[in-house]
Write a structure and sequence with these properties.
By secondary structure, this protein is of the alpha/beta class. The chain folds into 3 domains: about 160 residues, FAD/NAD(P)-binding domain (3-Layer(bba) Sandwich), CATH 3.50.50; about 100 residues, no CATH class; about 90 residues, 2-Layer Sandwich (D-Amino Acid Oxidase, Chain A, domain 2). The protein is built from 8 helices and 19 strands. The strands form 2 sheets. Strands 3, 4, 5, 6, 12, 13, 14, 15, 16 and 17 form a 10-stranded mixed sheet that branches. Strands 1, 2, 7, 8, 9, 10, 11, 18 and 19 form a 9-stranded mixed sheet that branches. A hairpin with a 2-residue loop joins strand 14 and strand 15. Helix 1 packs across helix 8. Bound molecules: flavin-adenine dinucleotide (FAD). The site of flavin-adenine dinucleotide (FAD) has 37 residues, from helix 1 and strand 17.
Length: about 400
């Protein structure tokens, strides 16, 4: 007899792990399958920030920012060894696209949306060299600073997976979905190594692979047309003086942040089409990031030989007329039946808001199978050392 589950989650990124944690803690018999290892996809390739996203204020997406900031506070409390509050510095030059008063107004709004938990200030000129040593001072008009949070994305994802496992979720790495067929009652699922299982609910949380995976599912599920936009980071052989929020050479946002004692610089936005598994930074992306770094730190310029590592992840964005920079970062949940779903697919989203999105998924699942117990993931601590309950 094939093993039967209430919920099968495909994909061991932050969304799959978050959904599996909430499901298992609610008492559903849950299994998660991941074709590689936990956090091997985009959830280890991000800028590793837990934030509302200052730049989404420009899109006037106040809901996204508000939710992100609220989730940031929950994660700071739930995972103190994985998420830390940090000061972020914004240097403003005579040539900056956004003047200091405009950034100041944005920081005030960010502070309000965070319920006063994102303090901000103007760094006095006499402290510029001490705060950001090596920063280009030519035509520098101001340095603004605000509070946000940072994490280790892969470690956070693994901590959520460990929490799911502690509630009884079966987690199978190196286990790919081969095919799934709904027979009207239940999903009959074949895994790549030949194992057959059944599940009442199927969750497609495969990030950039979401539409590829849905091709193996019958009846063919509803799909959202999407654009995959690659974001690259370079790890530079330089000590990073702090978390720095800058404009890149083309006026988009670029971060320099400390990472493993060095500087992580990024990101970029390059639309890609091929297999999500085969992405790597392009020559243009590399020279764009290096050019921006060298513009801000002209006294210790980096060459290609100073690149000691690269990260490359894929944003899942809705197909739109606008560029990737202005496309919505909100998560879209698609299901086969709004009133009694048996299949739910997760599109897009942010690392920061995974817990809230998992809550939304569990509310949908409860329409089909009532949760054995009511839980609140805001009360479940997370730790790099494993579950602490
Ligand atoms: C460059 C970049 C920077 C970002 N920075 C931030 C940031 O600073 N803060 C923030 O909040 N968000 C950030 N994000 C967004 C965030 O990283 C993503 O939204 C999130 O990591 C996506 O997680 P996921 O679980 O949906 O997908 P993934 O992490 O990609 O997980 C999907 C998993 O599914 C698996 N899979 C695929 N097919 C199958 C199959 N057939 N069977 C089994 N498993 C399968 C894959 O191996 C993969 O591990 C960033 C994104 C990018 C691209």
């Amino acid at each position: 007899m094939p093993e039967s589950y209430d919920i099968l989650v495909i994909g061991g990124g932050i969304h799959g792990c978050g959904i599996a944690q909430h499901a298992a803690a609610s008492g559903y018999k849950t299994r998660l399958i991941e074709m590689n290892t936990i956090a091997s996809g985009t959830s280890s390739q991000s800028t590793k920030l837990i934030h509302g996203g200052l730049r989404y204020l420009e899109q006037v997406n106040l809901k996204l920012v508000y939710e992100g900031l609220a989730e940031r506070e929950h994660l700071l409390r739930l995972a103190p060894d994985l998420v830390s509050r940090e000061w972020f510095y914004i240097p403003v030059y005579a040539s900056s696209k956004r003047p200091a008063w405009m950034i100041g107004a944005g920081l005030l709004l960010y502070w309000l949306l965070s319920g006063g938990r994102s303090r901000f200030k103007r760094v006095p000129q006499r402290l510029w060299s001490a705060v950001l040593p090596g920063l280009n001072k030519k035509d520098l008009k101001a340095i603004l600073a605000y509070e946000d949070a940072a994490t280790d994305d892969a470690a956070l994802t693994r901590a959520v997976a460990a929490s799911a496992s502690s509630f009884g979720c079966v987690i199978s790495e190196h286990t790919k979905l081969e095919k799934a067929k709904h027979d009207g009652e239940i999903w009959r699922v074949t895994l790549a190594h030949g194992e057959e299982i059944t599940t009442k609910i199927l969750i497609n949380a495969t990030g950039a692979w979401v539409n590829r995976v849905s091709k193996h599912i019958k009846p063919a599920p509803l799909q959202q047309s999407l654009r995959l936009v690659q974001g690259s980071h370079l790890m530079l052989n330089r000590t990073c003086p702090g978390f720095i929020y800058t404009e890149s050479l083309d006026g988009r946002v670029m971060f320099f942040r400390p990472w493993q004692g060095k500087t992580l610089a990024g990101t970029t936005e390059t639309t890609v089409t091929g297999n999500p598994a085969n992405i790597k930074p392009t020559a243009d992306e590399i020279s764009h990031i290096l050019g921006t770094y060298n513009h801000y730190f002209p006294d210790s310029p980096c060459r290609k030989t100073d690149i000691i590592g690269t990260y490359c992840g894929l944003r899942v964005l809705p197909e739109s007329e606008n560029g990737a920079f202005s496309a919505s970062r909100e998560t879209v949940l698609l299901c086969d039946d709004e009133t009694e779903p048996s299949y739910i697919a997760v599109y897009g989203g942010k690392l920061t808001t995974y817990r809230k999105e998992s809550e939304r998924v569990l509310k949908l699942i409860a329409k089909s199978i009532k949760a054995p117990r009511k839980i609140d993931t805001k009360q479940i601590p997370l730790s790099a050392a494993g579950p602490t309950m």
